[in-house]
Design goal:
The complex is a heterodimer of chains A (about 260) and B (about 90). Chain A has about 260 residues and is of the alpha/beta class. Helix content of chain A is about 40%, strand content about 15%. In chain A, strand 6 (about 135-140), helix 7 and strand 7 form a beta-alpha-beta unit. In chain A, helix 1 (about 15-30) crosses helix 11 and helix 5 (about 100-110) packs parallel to helix 6. Chain B is α+β, with helices and mostly antiparallel strands and about 90 residues long. Classes of the chains: A alpha/beta (about 260), B alpha+beta (about 90).
């Protein structure tokens, strides 16, 4: 039996979709069978971040409404045979799906996949309620800013109220230089405030922009963000992995390593 | 306070932490400062019927306390410390 993981944040633009794409791709690299579900109906984006936007035939709402079978709507990844995407509908809205329908779908999928990962829309309304309905675990993404941390706190409270078994935090877009000079909260500062388990800290890395431009998640490459995401994937599978030193400068050695 | 402290400016990340801690207390209690002020004045109004209150010593706050089942969860709790100067034995 697989695990259903929801990637959520409250605030928009903190990196939920990027995290979902990298988590899915990384777990597939670790030979896990993974399905990603974009639950952001009306504002789908996981398809473009994964580079699969040209292969969409059916979507989540088609599956829920019974217009097609689940298998017909799943898009296989370009690189990994064990990775699939169920895209959101673009022309419907969040009320096209109910929490009960989502739970039924994720329950069905987790009997066949090791991980069912849901990309949650921003906000705390219907879309959020749909995304968390069947979740066994939640990964809350935040950035080290007051607005994002405040929203993360609200989300953590709602996840607790909905009895989601496990909630872990990813602090995204950290800048080691700013943390060092006291102009940015560190991951530890954020943990201190939110009192939740940390599962990853991801540096603000321009390679992420390039990867998104190309529609190819960078997880597992030798960029700092790529390593950070791979570490998160390992931790998700239960492995103990020490946190990256985000201050690791691109010294002369790594310059030589680059092709 | 040391002389060096005067020149040491608080870092912006410390400011952010302090502001967040404050805002989250009221967020978690789902209680805005305006409502808090209303609760405060209502409590004073009611108590004033029965006792003379030391207005300067009043401390009313919403804080977090551990639940009684020891699960480590916290719930919001109203904390009130209201010094009484004198009891009015005839209610007004």
């Amino acid at each position: 039996m697989g695990e259903v993981i929801v990637v959520t944040s409250g605030k928009g633009g903190v990196g939920k979709t990027t995290t979902t794409a990298n988590l899915g791709t990384g777990l597939a690299k670790l030979n896990k069978k993974v399905v990603l579900i974009d639950t952001d109906i009306g504002l789908r984006n996981l398809d473009v971040v994964m580079g699969l936007e040209n292969r969409i035939v059916y979507n989540l709402v088609d599956v829920i409404e019974g217009n097609c079978k689940v298998k017909q709507a799943l898009i296989r990844d370009k690189k990994y045979d064990s990775l699939y995407l169920l895209p959101a509908a673009q022309t419907k809205d969040k009320t096209s799906v109910t929490p009960d329908q989502m739970k039924k779908l994720t329950d069905e999928l987790k009997s066949e996949f090791d991980y069912v990962i849901l990309d949650c829309p921003a906000g705390i309304e219907q879309g959020f309620k749909n995304a968390i309905a069947g979740a066994d675990r939640a990964l809350v993404v935040t950035t080290p800013e007051v607005s994002a941390v405040r929203d993360a706190d609200r989300i953590i409270g709602l996840l607790e109220a909905n009895e989601i078994g496990k909630t872990q935090l990813i602090v995204n877009r950290l800048r080691a230089d700013m943390v060092k000079r006291g102009d940015m909260m560190s991951a530890d500062d954020v943990i201190d405030i939110l009192a939740v388990e940390l599962i990853g800290q991801v540096p603000d890395d321009e390679n992420i922009v390039v990867a998104t431009n190309n529609g190819e998640p960078l997880v597992g490459d030798n960029s700092l963000a790529g390593q950070a995401y791979m570490n998160i994937c390992r931790r998700v599978t239960g492995e103990q992995v020490p946190f990256l030193d985000l201050e690791a400068k691109k010294g002369i050695f790594s310059w030589f390593k680059r092709k | 306070m040391k002389l060096s402290d005067i020149f040491k400016k608080k870092s912006s990340s410390d400011v952010a932490k302090d502001r967040l801690k404050l805002v989250l207390v009221s967020d978690r209690a789902t209680c805005s400062p305006e409502i808090m002020q209303k609760i405060r004045s209502d409590i004073i109004e009611v108590l004033s019927k029965y006792a003379e209150i030391d207005m300067a010593g009043i401390d009313i706050n919403i804080t977090q306390m551990d639940t009684e089942d020891n699960t480590g969860k916290t719930v919001p709790a109203l904390y009130a410390n209201i010094p009484i100067k004198n009891m009015n034995h005839t209610a007004k």
